[in-house]
Amino acid sequence: MTDFHIRYGAEVADARRDGRPVVALESTIVSHGLPRPDNLRVAREIEQAVRAAGAVPATIGMVGGELVVGLDDDQLTRLASTDGVAKLSVRDLAIASATGADGATTVAATSAVAAAAGIGVFATGGLGGVHREASQTFDESADLTTLARTPITVVCAGVKSILDVGATLERLETLGVAVLGYRTHRFPGFFITDSGFGLDWSVDSPEQAAAVLTAQAAHGAHLGGVIVANPLPIDEQLDPALHDRTLAEGLARMEREGVTGKAVTPFLLSHFHSATEGASLAVNVRIILRNATLAAQIAVALAARPSLAG
Ligand code: PSU
Ligand code: MN
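Above: inputs. Below: predicted complex with pseudouridine-5'-monophosphate.
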C-alpha cells in the first residue's frame, strides 16, 4: 500500500490510541460539491452526525502540502472558503504534497488515505462513476478503480443520475467492488430513492454490515472496497419531474460550454443547486447526514466485534 506521510488531528489521534471507532469523511464534497457558504456549515454538521452516533469524524484533506486526517476547524474553514483549492484524486496527492498545495480529496483519494490510516469506514454523499458518453470520452471516475484495490467501506446514496448508472454498476462488478443495499434491493440514485437498477445483496442493520466486513477480512479472498448503498426515504427524494428536467438542462449546458475532465462533476452539481433554487441542496444535505450516521453506526458495530477494529 502507498506509504503516505499523514498528520492526524488531535481528536483522531486520541481515538486511534484508544481504539475507538473512526469514520473518514471527504473534503471535495465541501470545496467542490456544495455551494458556499452552506458548505462549511454542512461540513461541521456531518462531523456532528458522526459524533452523535458514537464515532469520531476524520475529515481528510491537504493543507499547505500536508495530508491531514482529521482537519481541525481552521483547516476545514480554509478548504471550504478559499479559492484555488485543488480537487485531488489519488494520482494528485504526491504532486500536491510536493508543491505545498491546498487540496480537497475525492472519494478515491479519501479512500486511499483512510485505508493507509487504518480507517475502515467512510461516509460520503454520492460516488463518482461512469459518465454518460463514456464510450466516446473514456470519462470514468478513478473512484471506481481505486475501490477495486482499497479495503474500505463507503456509505453513500449510490451515484447521481448525471452518470450512466447501469454502466457504473457493471464496472463495479468487473472491478470486484461489492455493493450492499441498506434495507433495500434497489440501487439508489442519490437525489432519487431508486435508480431503476436492482442489487443482489442487502443488509438490514449496522451489525449485519459489520458482520459482512468482518467476514471479508477473515476470508482474505476479497481485498477491495465495499459499498453500502443507503437510499433516501421516498418521501424525502427530489421531485422526479424537477430532477429529470434539471438533469437534461445541465447535460445540454455542459455540452454547449464544452466542459470536460475533472470539471464535469462539480459543474453538474452546481447546475443542480442553482437550477432547483436550493431544493437539491436540501436533499443533498439530508443524504450526507444520513450516510454519516449510518457509517458511524457501522464503525461502532465493527469496533464491538472482537476480531476487527473499525
Ligand atoms: N458525486 C456527488 N457529489 C460529489 C462528488 C461526486 O454526488 O461531491 C465528488 C466526490 O468527491 C467524488 C468526485 O469522488 O466528485 C468524483 O469526481 P470525478 O467524477 O471527477 O472523479
Ligand atoms: Mn472524470
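Residues 139, 141, 262, 264 surround manganese (II) ion (ligand 2) (CB under 6 Å).
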